[in-house]
Design goal:
Largest sheet: 7 strands, mixed
Radius of gyration: 14 Å
Shape: elongated
Number of helices: 0
Distance between the termini: 40 Å
């Protein structure tokens, strides 16, 4: 059983910072790609920042220069450092990973963590 567990969400004032974490656990053979999506009320889920296969990164234009994705040496935990937060960054942030186990390769989602940017 593979699990993605997120942490680090909360309420922050505009211009503030937050750091999200996502840890993958279980019988993992390899993690092919891993990163973050978000979904604001009434909007579709969108990619925020991602480590692609091969380790390259991909960012949404709206967060470039403000958000940074990183990961630990083992590659099982990813972080999202969010600086200069804006009210429009308010959303539920979801961790997503393409993970291979002994049985199959599939996409997994975390439970989501709420980020609210408000004064």
């Amino acid at each position: 059983q593979v699990q993605l567990v997120e942490s680090g969400g909360g309420l922050v004032q505009p211009g503030g910072s937050l750091r999200l974490s996502c840890a993958a656990s279980g019988r993992i053979f390899s993690i092919n790609a891993m990163g973050w999506y978000r979904q604001a009320p009434g909007k579709e889920r969108e990619l925020v920042a991602f480590f692609n296969r091969g380790g390259t990164t991909n960012y949404a234009d709206s967060v470039k220069g403000r958000f940074t994705i990183s990961r630990d040496n083992a590659g099982n935990t990813v972080y999202l450092q969010m600086n200069s937060l804006k009210p429009e960054d308010t959303a539920v942030y979801y961790c997503n990973a393409d993970i291979a186990t002994c049985y199959r390769t599939q996409a997994y989602w975390g439970q989501g963590t709420q980020v609210t940017v408000s004064s």
